[in-house]
C-alpha cells in the first residue's frame, strides 16, 4: 500500500520490526500507523502497525492472525499483496507490497473526473480485485477512493487485510465500537448493523465509480447524519456516469444487498461490454465474513461473549430470508438518550428500493404547518419515505397541529412513537424542500459539522431536542400515540437497539466528538427567551441557511438575517457574511487604473492601492458610507520606476510600497504622503512584500530567487539585514505574525519555511508537501501563526499546520470552488479566509468551530481578476483589479452588524411573520429590521 509520500520518523517511531527496517511514515489510520519499510532483500514494503489499545486485546490478536492468513490467500491481480504478518509480537504488524502512486481520491482532487477510458479501467480493476478478495473469503468493508491506488501498472485495491470489525473487549471496544466503513461509501446494511456480506463491497464499488466519473461524493456532502440518511433512503446521483457504466453502477447501488451483482458478475459484464448475467444479483449477498472457528462458535461461555460474537459472526451466511426488518422504536421500551437517540431519529423511514430517483417528485405546500406528501411507493410492510416533514402521528397532534400551525416533533417518552426527519434533497435534486420548524426550547450545545452542506449536499435532516411528556407546543396528545404501523414486535429486539448504538458511535467518531444537538430535554419553561435558547435557535437557522443557500439564496438571506436578529452567534455571523457581503460592495472614487496591489490599514480607516503607472492612491474610509480619495501620488519621480507595487501599512501610521525601488512613507497627513526612504535591494526589484505583526520586520522578493529581510522599526531609516536565496523562482512571501517564520512560495508547488528568529542567521526548516498541478501563487499566515493557507495554480486553496516547521501537515482536504488558478489568499479576522482567482471569483471560507474543510461562498459577483486585502478587525475587504485592464477599487463589508443595514435595505430579505411562525415555535415574531 502507499498513496502518500513518506515523511521522516518521529523519535517515538520504531526503527526495526522483525526483519524489516523502518525508513519513513506513510500515514495514520483508524487501526494504526503505516510505515515505509525495507525487507532483508532490499525491497520496499508497507508495514501497518496496530494501535496498542487494540493489540492489548487477546481476542483481537486471534482475529488479526486469521485475517492475515486469509489475506495472504488473495490472488494478487489488482491488489496490494499481503506478504507477512506478526500477530504475536509486542507491536503486531501486517506487511504488504509497497505500491507507488497516488490514491484515487487525491488524483481526482488534483485533476478532476477521470477520462472514460481510464474510468473503465478503474471499474474493471476494482471489480477484479473484489472478485479475488471475495474468493479468499474476505469482505473489505471499507472500500473508498482512499483505498484505491493508481499505480504505474494500473489501479490496485489496498487495506483489505484488516478491513474487518475487530470488536475486542475492554473500554476501547465499549466506547469506540468500530462499525467499519467510511461515511458516504458505506452500504445500508453496514449502517443498520445487519449482516455484512460481499454485497457491501459492491455498493462501495458503485459509489467510488460515481466519484471517479464525476468528482463528487455519491451521496453529497454535509453532516454525518445527513449522509447516513441519504444512503438509507435516497438514490445516489449517477448523472455524469458514462452510459456504458450507468446500468452497472445502478445495479451495484441497490439498497437491498441481495439485489446487487457479485464482483465476478461485474467483472464479466465489464469485460464483455454486455449486460449482467441474469440471476447474478441473487447471489451477491451470499459471501459473509469468514465463519468463526470452532472455539468461537461454541467454546466461549457467557452471555457477554455470545453478544460480542453475534455482532461479528452469528449472522454470517444468513440469506435474504433471514434479513431483519428496518430499525424501529420499541413502544414501551427503555428510553435511551444521547447517541442512540441520534440514530433513532435518523433511521426511521425504510430504505428506497432503487438507486434512481422517481420520475416525479411531490413537493410539499409552502404553507405553515407542513404536511406529508407522497414519496416513493412503499414496499410491503414498510412505510413510504416522506418528501417533507411528516405530520404528528395519530393521537399526538396538539392544538397547534389541529389548527394548521407549526408542529413541533412529538416527545419520545415511553410509549411514544418515533418522529421522522424530513428527507434531504438527493444530490443534484430540487433544493427547495420546506424546512422543519425549529423549536426554541431545545437546550443542546451549539453544533457545527466539519463543513457546511454545500452545493448538491442538501440540508441535513433537522432534528430537535424534545421534552417529555408533552410536545414543545403543548399538544395534549404528544406523549401518547400509536406504534408505527407495519412493524410487529418481532423486530423490536435488543440487537436492534445495539444497532442504534453502533450508528451513534460511528456518528460520534466521524464528527470528531462534535456534539449533535439531539437528546431529551426538559424545555426549561422559560418560553424560549433565555440567551442559551436564543443562541441555539440562531445557530439552527444559520445552519439551515447554509443548507439551502446554493438552491434558494433568497430564503438563505431571510434565514441568515433572522438568525442574527435572534442572537449574533458565530454561525449567524458567518451566515450574514455568506449571504450579504456580495451585496455590500461599493466603488471607491477616482479614475480607473490597472492596479498592482492594495491594502487596508489595521483600523480600517485608510485604503491604499498602487498601479502600473507608478502611482500611489489613498482613500479615507472614516465614513464608509461616503469614502473619499485623499491622495494620488506619483512615485516614479522619486526613482521608483514606472511601476509601484504591493502597498503595506505600518502600525505607526506609515506605509511601504514596492516597485523597481521600494519606499517608506509617512502618512501623518494622508492628504500629503511624505516620502521617507528607499527600500532598494542590491539585486532585483521589490515586487511582493510581507510585514510581521508588529511592523518591524519586512520581507521583499523580486519574483526570481532573491529575497531580502529589512528592519523597518524606524521607517525613516530602513536597515537591510541580509539577502536570501530561494531554491526556485519565488511567487509570494509571508511572515508569521510574530515575525519568526518566513514562508516562501514558488513555482515548484511547495512552500519553504525558514526560521528567522535570528534574521541574520535564518535556518531552513522544511517545506509543505508537493504534488500540486502547477505552482503556489499566494501564501498567508492565519492570525494564530500556527497555520498558513496557500492559493494554488490548480484552483485549490489549502490549509497547513506549521506548528512543527520541520514537518508541516496539510489540514483536511483541498478547498475546491475556484474554476481557475488562485491569485490571492487573505485572512479576514479570526475565522474567515478570502481567495481570488484568474476568472474574477472572490470566495470566502469559514473556519469557525474548527472546520478544516469549509464550503465556499461567493463574496462578490465581479468577473475580473483582482487583488484582495482586509483590515485588522476582519470587518472590511478591499478589492482591486489585477489584470492589465483598468478598473475600480471596491470596498465590501464582512462585519455582520454593518451587513444588517445592507440586508434591511431590501424588504425581501425580511422574514415575514407567517414564515417565522412556520419555522420557529416558542418564540414570538421579531421583525429582523425593527429599529433600523
UniProtKB/TrEMBL annotation:
Molecular functions (GO terms): ATP binding; protein serine/threonine kinase activity
Record CDD domains: STKc_PknB_like
Nucleus is among the record's keywords: no
Domain named Protein kinase: residues: 20-271
The keyword S-adenosyl-L-methionine belongs to this UniProt entry's keyword annotation: no
Any Pfam family matching the protein: WD40
Ranges: WD repeats: 769-802
UniProt keyword terms in alphabetical order: ATP-binding, Kinase, Nucleotide-binding, Repeat, Transferase, WD repeat
Superkingdom per UniProt: Bacteria
Region Disordered: start-end pairs: 287-493
Biased composition (Low complexity): 320-331, 343-366, 374-386, 397-406
PROSITE patterns per UniProt: PROTEIN_KINASE_ATP (PS00107), PROTEIN_KINASE_DOM (PS50011), PROTEIN_KINASE_TYR (PS00109), WD_REPEATS_1 (PS00678), WD_REPEATS_2 (PS50082), WD_REPEATS_REGION (PS50294)
Sites where the protein binds ATP: 48
Ranges of compositional bias, category Polar residues: 463-473
Protein name, as recorded: Protein kinase domain-containing protein
Source organism per UniProt: Pseudofrankia asymbiotica
Amino acid at each position: 500500500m502507499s498513496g502518500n509520500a513518506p515523511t521522516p520518523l518521529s523519535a517515538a517511531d520504531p526503527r526495526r520490526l522483525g526483519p524489516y527496517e523502518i525508513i519513513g511514515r506513510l500515514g495514520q489510520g483508524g487501526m494504526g500507523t503505516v510505515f515505509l519499510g525495507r525487507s532483508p532483500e532490499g525491497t520496499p514494503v508497507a508495514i501497518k502497525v496496530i494501535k496498542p489499545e487494540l493489540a492489548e486485546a487477546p481476542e483481537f490478536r486471534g482475529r488479526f492472525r486469521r485475517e492475515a492468513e486469509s489475506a495472504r490467500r488473495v490472488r494478487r491481480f489488482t491488489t496490494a499483496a499481503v506478504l507477512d504478518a506478526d500477530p504475536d509480537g509486542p507491536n503486531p504488524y501486517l506487511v504488504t507490497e509497497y505500491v507507488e502512486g497516488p490514491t484515487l481520491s487525491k488524483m481526482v482532487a488534483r485533476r478532476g473526473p477521470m477520462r472514460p477510458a481510464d474510468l473503465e479501467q478503474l471499474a474493471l480493476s476494482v471489480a477484479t480485485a473484489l472478485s479475488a478478495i471475495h474468493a479468499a473469503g474476505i469482505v473489505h468493508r471499507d472500500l473508498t477512493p482512499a483505498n484505491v491506488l493508481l499505480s504505474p501498472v494500473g489501479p490496485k485495491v489496498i487495506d483489505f487485510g484488516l478491513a474487518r470489525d475487530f470488536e475486542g473487549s475492554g473500554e476501547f471496544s465499549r466506547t469506540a465500537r468500530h462499525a467499519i466503513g467510511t461515511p458516504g461509501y458505506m452500504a445500508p446494511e453496514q449502517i443498520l448493523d445487519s449482516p455484512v456480506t460481499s454485497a457491501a463491497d459492491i455498493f462501495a464499488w458503485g459509489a467510488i465509480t460515481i466519484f471517479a466519473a464525476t468528482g463528487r461524493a455519491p451521496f453529497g456532502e454535509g453532516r454525518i447524519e445527513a449522509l447516513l440518511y441519504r444512503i438509507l433512503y435516497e438514490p445516489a446521483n449517477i448523472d455524469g456516469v458514462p452510459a456504458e457504466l450507468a446500468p452497472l453502477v445502478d445495479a451495484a447501488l441497490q439498497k437491498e444487498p441481495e439485489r446487487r451483482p457479485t464482483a465476478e458478475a461485474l467483472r464479466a459484464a465489464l469485460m464483455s461490454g454486455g449486460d449482467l448475467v441474469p440471476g447474478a444479483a441473487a447471489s451477491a449477498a451470499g459471501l459473509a465474513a469468514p465463519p468463526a472457528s470452532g472455539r468461537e462458535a461454541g467454546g466461549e461461555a457467557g452471555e457477554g461473549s455470545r453478544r460480542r460474537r453475534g455482532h461479528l459472526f452469528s449472522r454470517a451466511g444468513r440469506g435474504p430470508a433471514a434479513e431483519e426488518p428496518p430499525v424501529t422504536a420499541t413502544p414501551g421500551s427503555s428510553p435511551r438518550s444521547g447517541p442512540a437517540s441520534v440514530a433513532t431519529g435518523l433511521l426511521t423511514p425504510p430504505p428506497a428500493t432503487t438507486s434512481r430517483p422517481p420520475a416525479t417528485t411531490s413537493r410539499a405546500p409552502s404553507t405553515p404547518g407542513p404536511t406529508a406528501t407522497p414519496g416513493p411507493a412503499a414496499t410491503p410492510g414498510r412505510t413510504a419515505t416522506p418528501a417533507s416533514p411528516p405530520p404528528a402521528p395519530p393521537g399526538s397532534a396538539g392544538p397547534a397541529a389541529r389548527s394548521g400551525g407549526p408542529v413541533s416533533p412529538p416527545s419520545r417518552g415511553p410509549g411514544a412513537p418515533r418522529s421522522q426527519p424530513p428527507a434531504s434533497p438527493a444530490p443534484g435534486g430540487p433544493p427547495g424542500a420546506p424546512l422543519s420548524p425549529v423549536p426554541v426550547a431545545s437546550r443542546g450545545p451549539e453544533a457545527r459539522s466539519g463543513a457546511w452542506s454545500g452545493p448538491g449536499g442538501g440540508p441535513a435532516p433537522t432534528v430537535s431536542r424534545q421534552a417529555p411528556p408533552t410536545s414543545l407546543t403543548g399538544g395534549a396528545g404528544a406523549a401518547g400515540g400509536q406504534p408505527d404501523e407495519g412493524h410487529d414486535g418481532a423486530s423490536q429486539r435488543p440487537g436492534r437497539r445495539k444497532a442504534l448504538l453502533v450508528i451513534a458511535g460511528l456518528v460520534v467518531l466521524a464528527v470528531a466528538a462534535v456534539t449533535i444537538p439531539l437528546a431529551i430535554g426538559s424545555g426549561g419553561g422559560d418560553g424560549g427567551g433565555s440567551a442559551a435558547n436564543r443562541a441555539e435557535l440562531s445557530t439552527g437557522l444559520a445552519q439551515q441557511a447554509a443548507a439551502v443557500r446554493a438552491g434558494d439564496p433568497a430564503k438563505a438571506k431571510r434565514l441568515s438575517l433572522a438568525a442574527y436578529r435572534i442572537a449574533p452567534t458565530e454561525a449567524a455571523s458567518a451566515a450574514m457574511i455568506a449571504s450579504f457581503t456580495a451585496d455590500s460592495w461599493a466603488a471607491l472614487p477616482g479614475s480607473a487604473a490597472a492596479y498592482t496591489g492594495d491594502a487596508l490599514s489595521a483600523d480600517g480607516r485608510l485604503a491604499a492601492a498602487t498601479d502600473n503607472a507608478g502611482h500611489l492612491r489613498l482613500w479615507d474610509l472614516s465614513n464608509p458610507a461616503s469614502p473619499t480619495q485623499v491622495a494620488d501620488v506619483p512615485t516614479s519621480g522619486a526613482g521608483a520606476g514606472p511601476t509601484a507595487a504591493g502597498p503595506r501599512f505600518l502600525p505607526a501610521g506609515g506605509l511601504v510600497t514596492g516597485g523597481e525601488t521600494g519606499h517608506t512613507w509617512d502618512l501623518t497627513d494622508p492628504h500629503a504622503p511624505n516620502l521617507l526612504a528607499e527600500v532598494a535591494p542590491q539585486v532585483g526589484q521589490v515586487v511582493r512584500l510581507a510585514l510581521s505583526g508588529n511592523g518591524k520586520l519586512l520581507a521583499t522578493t523580486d519574483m526570481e530567487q532573491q529575497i531580502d529581510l529589512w528592519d523597518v522599526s524606524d521607517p525613516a531609516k530602513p536597515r537591510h539585514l541580509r539577502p536570501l536565496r530561494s531554491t526556485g523562482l519565488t511567487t509570494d512571501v509571508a511572515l508569521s505574525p510574530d515575525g519568526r517564520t518566513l514562508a516562501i512560495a514558488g513555482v515548484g508547488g511547495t512552500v519553504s519555511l525558514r526560521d528567522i528568529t535570528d534574521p541574520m542567521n535564518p535556518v531552513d526548516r522544511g517545506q509543505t508537501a508537493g504534488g500540486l498541478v502547477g505552482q503556489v501563487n499566494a501564501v498567508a499566515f492565519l492570525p494564530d501563526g500556527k497555520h498558513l493557507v496557500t492559493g494554488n495554480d490548480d484552483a485549490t486553496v489549502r490549509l497547513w499546520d506549521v506548528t512543527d516547521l520541520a514537518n508541516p501537515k496539510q489540514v483536511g482536504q483541498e478547498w475546491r470552488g475556484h474554476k481557475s488558478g488562485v491569485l490571492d489568499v487573505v485572512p479576514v479576522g479570526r475565522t474567515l479566509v478570502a481567495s481570488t482567482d484568474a476568472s474574477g471569483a472572490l470566495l470566502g471560507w469559514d473556519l469557525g468551530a474548527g472546520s478544516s474543510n469549509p464550503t465556499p461562498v461567493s463574496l462578490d459577483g465581479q468577473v475580473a481578476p483582482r487583488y484582495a486585502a482586509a483590515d485588522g478587525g476582519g470587518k472590511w475587504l478591499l478589492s482591486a483589479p489585477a489584470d492589465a485592464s483598468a478598473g475600480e477599487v471596491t470596498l465590501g463589508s464582512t462585519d455582520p452588524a454593518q451587513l444588517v443595514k445592507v440586508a434591511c435595505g431590501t424588504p425581501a430579505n425580511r422574514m415575514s411573520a407567517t414564515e417565522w411562525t412556520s419555522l420557529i415555535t416558542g418564540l414570538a415574531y421579531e421583525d429582523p429590521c425593527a429599529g433600523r
